[in-house]
Amino acid sequence: MPAAPRIVVRPVLATLVLHGLMLYFLTANWAGSEVEVTRVKPAPRVINAHLVDVSDFKPKPKPKPVAKPKTRTKPKSKPRPVAKSKPKPAAKVKPAAKPKPVVKPRPKAEPRISEQELAAMARADLSRAMAEEEQVRATATAEEMAASYAALIQQTVVNYWSRPPSARNGMEALLAIQLIPTGEVVSVTVLKSSGNTAFDRSAVNAVEKAGSFPELQSLPTREFEKTFRRFRLLFRPEDLRY
Amino acid sequence: MKWLVCVVLNVVLLLAALNARAELTIEITQGVDNPTAIAVVPFAWQGAGLAPEDIAAVVDGDLARSGQFAPVGRADMLGRPSTAAEVFYRDWRALDTEYLLDGRVSVTSQMRIEYELFDVLRQTSVYSGVETGPVNEARMLGHRVADAVYEKLTGIRGAFATRLLYISVTRVPGGKDYSRLTLADSDGARPIVLLESREPMLAPTWSPDGKQIAYVSFETSPGHLSPGSGNRPA
Q1: Would you call A41 and B27 a contact, using CB atoms and an 8 Å cutoff?
Q2: Rounded average pLDDT per 10-residue block, chain B, 234 residues
Q3: Who among B19, B31, B35 is closest to A237 (CB)?
């Protein structure tokens, strides 16, 4: 607050103006609906794909038919713990990488590579590749993550939405949804009606029928609070006959 | 002028706070249009003896035939409420029912059907209404209930409480065919044969006010338009 000068009028005016502005902004904000940025998803199909290079498992040398199942079973047990959590791969890479230098001197002495060594090499390569990928995934922006969860919510609601026969293309109903961190829907309110009560009801029912989005539990708390604690759903059919 | 700086700073900060509160909007442009699950509980009969007509069955049949609804089978119902107090939403939610219709039927001089439609998901009453009419028009009253429910839930006027006019022909090998002009409820129940003839009849239709009918007759001369009379409730 400004230091009070000798005249009393100015600070009083300043406080009045300030409080007025504060009140205005607060109320305008809570009433909502004007300055909000909306992100719109026309139907993003987000696919989570992981690339596993199979050539790593069976490199050039000619392992006898006996060798094949061995190399195969080993990597199989490997990727599982890696896929589970991020911190693990970092720890795993080291033990896998270690045997490499230990075993390496041998091939120089013998031109033929032993089966175990081959498997170890393949394993090391694989875990390195996976660790890299893991890192890339971790650094993926929070926005991308939010977008993929938004797509998930969208897909779920689409699967539950059955439109009444009076619904027409271009009708719009805007709903406000409130979630709790378990992914459960705690409130659904119609912000902007389409003018057709049957249509509005079908939209609300679609969300109510979905009931909860348990996948959101895996979302970091910060991200959840920021984006999914409360969000909006705009129902605007485009695939109807009329 | 220090205060002015303060004011400006505050305004800027407030604006920044406003921008930070952007909300995610997800757009839904598609849907799967499955029929809506609705449970039509048998209406409670409040009178002596047996109910003259199973009104709920009429409503159930109408809604199912519209293709917009998938009524829940009576054998699956976990309760048969007839008033709002008797409705346990959890039971109906377990059946994946979206709406529930119950009602009471009583007869004094006229038949009176009170019914109430509930939204199972939101656990509220959506609509309630009363239909009254003569006892022998019980089916028509049932159709009217179906109309009201249909309009409430789909936004389109129902056409169950209407009548159907049709001609059926019985082939007679080696002789002249039998034609019958028939009037029935919209679901084909209660057919009344208005006219039977060995001459062919064609294209029955209603007059604009619904009080008369016309059809093409071959009785006096080929292709003669003949007015008859019928009546169709509004």
Answers
A1: yes
A2: 72 62 81 88 85 87 90 88 88 89 89 91 89 88 92 89 89 86 88 85 85 80 59 39
A3: B31
As given in the structure block, the two tokens for residue B58 are 């009429």
What's the CA gap between A131 and A83, in Å, rounded?
A: 10
ipTM: 0.73
Instruction: Give me the sign of the Cα torsion angle A127, A131, A137, A138.
Output: positive
* pTM of the shown model: 0.64
8 Å CB contact between A97 and A126 = no
CATH pick for B36-154 out of 3.40.50.10070, 3.30.565.10, 3.40.50.300, 3.30.40.10: 3.40.50.10070
Q: What is the tens place of the pLDDT at every residue in B71-84? A: 998 888 888 888 88
- Phi, psi values for residue A42, rounded to 5°: -70, -25
Shortest alpha-carbon distance between residue A39 and chain B (Å): 6
Q: Which residues from chain B sit within 8 angstroms of residue A7, using beta carbons?
A: none
What is the CATH code for A142-235? 3.30.1150.10
Cβ–Cβ contact A212 with B under 8 A: no
CB B147 within 8 A of CB B171: no
